[in-house]
Write a structure and sequence with these properties.
The complex is a heterotetramer. By secondary structure, chain C is an all-alpha fold. Chain C is built from three helices and no strands. In chain D, about 45% of the residues are buried. The chains are: A mainly alpha, B mainly alpha, C mainly alpha, D mainly alpha.
Chain lengths: ~100, ~350, ~120, ~180
């Protein structure tokens, strides 16, 4: 069997990882677990960006620049979101996101 | 003279001939060559750590006007070998309420993080396994797995001392990683490359050493590196009077030995990086290149040992304050000054 | 890319070396566990409660500041590689970049968050 | 199979299995460890895609910083060892359906889209090209990243800062406080 690894392979992998992330984000009760799933989705997007950079704009690696910005945004998101999780924990003595519904009504 | 690169070229060619004779492709040649190189470095690392442990004991003994190990072999020179054999035979006690999988993998992660660095260190002219074009950044990246390893050890042991030691250690290592990386950036601004081999190549003459152009950067690197490898005066994670043995409290036998091995490998690594970035790496007159590299690096290791028996331990608040309130602003200032000099002159 | 093959080999062989050591030691070491030996070490006392207890938030504060500065470092590296050829403009850009982040450090400092206790 | 194919599938397997464990593991600390493995696998993919600088950045930021921050957060929110807590909510079937549906849509779209591939030699890693782009074409986003980081830092510090009236005991060296 000979397979030439190309753009579509990376995109398919990225799609699978993204959907695993979506599944985790929807089903996790633990706030930190939700964040981890979101990080997985960020990563799937990054793989897509770098794959496009490699195969579509190999000389001007714009995709890599955007991936670098995505990493920075993910870091900023993680710090703030984890701080919020901590705050929720201090107030509710738990980080079960299903019970955090005080903003619902 | 004793130039090892010729020997390595010869061995590499022999391997290539042998593998090709077996009817395998060029990918296999590379693979076998790399495996041989990695095994050689594992052997070198093990022997070197045995030597360093012995040296540490002798240095500490003589600083304290003792004699240190004397019984096993001439002046106790085989002592650490005997200790290694002893550790191999020790019963491996796994406490019943640890998180077994993580407890098992923590020493592996720690060791691999320490060992993987050796793939890019230029030990001499032509004596480098692979010359990555992101060399120094690769080192910074792969060593972060050491932090993961010690967090895994601290968490999985289910022991209060381990946990506290692990987290204190992690907080310390990440705090000092910032000034260390900034000091490295100071050098990179001058070298315009991240490749370890090219950085060494730019410092052929004595006056080209980057320590002369980056004296503040070197001092920051030295202090931060000492903290990174948890040496006195920054050895709080293993402050035995407070934390027993820190994150290795519950480890015994071979698993403990792996943490120990990684610790000494890291000590050699930071000295080797310091040599490469600031002291011209393997460049030097008369002697073979690898000998110069070893001399410079071991001198660095000796200074680390010397400091351990000279300075008292810092308090944890002083430690963190020093990293964030002094070293970090100083490192930023160093970058600004360097940048200004480069732009203006 | 091919130069990274060495990294893969080093990672795999590093793991292999440790596993080999574990195996070697397993073959020759004694094994006679008992409940006392396997209990958690707590200076000879019976351990009180699990160790997985809540920790003080100050560990977290430092880690949080570290994350932000780690990102800064990653953005500084490409700059350091090319700023010589791009001249004064690139330098000024970086001064602005670092300057903005220094406000963050200053804020943490003034609020007393860099104190350990 | 040639080496590239083999490495790609090995890395893909690592990433996907780790990702699955991240979202299904009962123990949140184990999830964090699997997340690190998935992120490391993604770094390997970046190397395969001729982006070694980005791979190092990925490991440095994700593994070295974000993952450690997450482990610290896991520590700060107790009760992790208690595996009896249900870690998934009642949305599992719905979540599964949505995720699989999304996957089907994406793969269908991927299958039916003609992908234009341009040849060319990628710049030789090392981050030089990235630096040039940061300082020329993308200079505004580059500075905005700095502002974003500042905002994140200050915001997170305000949120995470411990209660002012709660502790300050100057000589308190013990770093643990028993939770509720």
């Amino acid at each position: 069997m000979h397979v030439e690894i190309g753009l579509s392979h990376y995109l398919a992998l990225s799609a699978i990882v993204f959907c695993i992330g979506v599944f985790g984000m929807l089903t996790r009760r633990n706030g930190i677990g939700v964040l981890m799933s979101i990080e997985l989705m960020f990563n799937a997007v990054n793989i897509t960006l770098v794959a496009f950079a490699r195969y579509v704009t190999p000389v001007e690696i714009t995709g890599q620049v955007i991936a670098a910005f995505t990493i920075a945004v993910a870091a900023a998101e993680a710090t703030v979101a984890l701080a919020i999780v901590l705050l929720i924990y201090q107030h509710h003595r738990g980080i079960d996101v299903d019970r955090i519904n005080i903003m619902k009504w | 003279m004793l130039e090892l690169d010729k020997l390595i070229g010869f061995v590499g060619a022999q391997i290539a001939a042998l593998v090709t004779a077996l009817g395998l492709g060029p990918d296999w040649v590379t693979l076998v060559q790399l495996v041989v190189a990695a095994l050689t470095l594992i052997g070198f690392a093990s022997v070197m750590v045995l030597g360093l442990v012995y040296a540490e004991r002798k240095v500490s003994a003589h600083i304290q006007m003792r004699v240190g190990p004397m019984r096993v072999g001439w002046h106790g020179i085989l002592q650490t070998l005997a200790d290694a054999v002893k550790l191999l035979q020790k019963e491996d006690i796994t406490p019943s309420n640890v998180d077994r999988a993580i407890y098992f993998w923590a020493p592996i992660v720690t060791f691999v993080a320490a060992f993987a660095v050796y793939a890019v260190i230029p030990f001499g002219r032509g004596l480098v396994v692979t010359d990555l074009n992101i060399g120094i950044l690769y080192i910074l990246a792969i060593t972060t797995f050491g932090v993961i390893g010690l967090l895994m050890a601290g968490w999985s042991s289910n022991n209060k001392y381990s946990l506290l030691g692990g987290f204190r250690s992690a907080a310390q290592v990440v705090s000092y990683e910032v000034p260390m990386a900034l000091a490295v950036i100071g050098v990179v601004m001058l070298t315009q490359t991240l490749s370890m081999v090219q950085i060494v190549g730019q410092q052929e003459k004595f006056y080209q050493w980057y320590v002369w152009r980056q004296p503040i950067g070197f001092l920051i690197y030295f202090v931060a590196a000492t903290a990174e490898v948890n040496r006195t005066p920054f050895d709080l994670p293993e402050a035995d009077s407070e934390l027993v043995a820190g994150f290795v409290t519950e480890y015994s036998g071979m698993k403990f030995a792996m943490f120990f091995l990684a610790e000494f490998l890291n000590m050699f690594t930071v000295a080797a990086i310091g040599t490469t970035l600031f002291f011209g790496g393997w460049n030097g007159p008369v002697l073979p290149s690898w000998m110069w590299f070893l001399i410079k690096t071991l001198a660095g290791v000796f200074v680390l040992m010397w400091m351990r028996w000279t300075y008292p331990r810092l308090r944890v608040d002083q430690l963190m304050g020093f990293a964030w309130k002094f070293l970090l602003p100083l490192a930023i200032l160093n970058i600004l000054i360097t940048g200004l000099f480069v732009v203006l002159f | 890319m091919s130069e990274f093959a060495a990294i893969a080999v080093f990672l795999v062989l590093g793991v292999g070396f440790v596993l080999f050591n574990f195996l070697l030691s397993k073959l020759i070491r004694p094994k006679n566990p008992n409940p006392i030996k396997q209990s958690t070490y707590e200076c000879g006392e019976t351990p009180v409660g699990p160790a997985w207890i809540q920790f003080n938030v100050r560990f977290y504060i430092f880690c949080l500041i570290f994350v932000i500065f780690d990102v800064e470092i990653v953005f500084l590296f490409p700059w350091a590689l090319v700023f010589q050829s791009l001249g004064l403009f690139a330098f000024v850009e970086m001064v602005i970049f670092v300057g903005i982040l220094m406000f963050g450090l200053l804020y943490a400092w003034k609020k007393g968050l860099l104190r350990w206790y | 199979m040639d080496t590239i194919t083999l490495v790609f599938f090995a890395l893909a397997l690592l990433i996907i299995t780790s990702a699955l464990f991240v979202v299904t593991s009962k123990n949140i600390f184990h999830s964090a460890i699997f997340l690190i493995m998935a992120l490391f696998g993604a770094a390997g993919m970046f190397v395969m895609l001729e982006a070694p600088f980005l791979a190092a950045a990925q490991v440095l930021i994700y593994v070295g910083a974000i993952a450690i921050l997450m482990i610290f957060a896991v520590m700060l929110t107790a009760r992790i060892a208690d595996e009896s807590i249900i870690h998934t909510n009642e949305q599992v079937p719905a979540g599964l359906a949505i995720a699989l549906g999304l996957l089907a849509v994406i793969l269908y779209g991927l299958w039916n889209t003609p992908l234009t591939i341009h040849g060319g030699t990628p710049p030789s890693g090392g981050g030089h090209k990235l630096g040039e782009l940061f300082l020329t074409t993308f200079v505004l986003p580059f500075e905005v990243v700095s502002v974003l980081l500042l905002a994140a830092l200050v915001g997170a510090l305000i949120i995470a800062r411990r209660d002012p009236g709660a502790t300050p005991r100057p000589n308190d060296q013990s770093a643990e406080q028993t939770g509720a």
